[in-house]
Design a protein that fits this description.
Order of helices and strands: HEEEEEEEEEE
Number of helices: 1
Strand order of the largest sheet: 4-3-6-7-9-10
CATH topology: Immunoglobulin-like
Shape: globular
Largest sheet: 6 strands, mixed
């Protein structure tokens, strides 16, 4: 009986150590940022992470976050994956970011990527959504970088 009580008591410690070791292994990183309508923060904006090329109709939602009172949010992403990040708030345009998290083996894996998403008031109906921003790892800079739509 004492042995099973000890095993149950040690289980949370074991799970913490496994989780901590996995987090330290470099297989994930933090995508964080602020949602704004410059210069104001947009608390309550929704940030959703989908599988590659995804949208609400076709993609699988992996996780989501709601911007806090300062407009800040965080998501955890895996390396060697492709994602679509969608940032929205009622009354504002929706922004999309295509994220390629593939990093060459020889490069050190960054621990995070942070950005500011500026949402403008929603355009009139019938206006096509803007092309997504592309985020990718730049080996020359040894960090994630982005390319704005043309």
């Amino acid at each position: 009986m004492k042995k099973s009580i000890l095993s149950i008591a040690l289980l949370p410690l074991f799970l913490f150590v496994v989780h901590f070791a996995k987090a330290q292994s470099g297989d994930t990183f933090v995508l964080s940022g602020w949602v704004k309508h410059i210069p104001d923060n947009l608390p309550g904006a929704k940030v959703v992470l989908y599988t590659e090329g995804a949208n609400e109709a076709a993609g699988q939602e992996l996780q989501s976050a709601t911007a806090d009172r300062k407009g800040k949010f965080e998501l955890n992403l895996s390396f060697d994956s492709n994602y679509m990040v969608e940032i929205s708030k009622e009354g504002y345009e929706t922004k999309r970011i295509v994220m390629d998290t593939h990093v060459p083996q020889a490069s050190a894996h960054p621990k995070s990527f942070t950005f500011v998403a500026n949402l403008n008031p929603a355009p009139d109906k019938g206006v096509a959504p803007a092309d997504p921003v592309k985020v990718f790892f730049d080996p020359a800079k040894k960090q994630f970088d982005y390319e704005l739509p043309k």
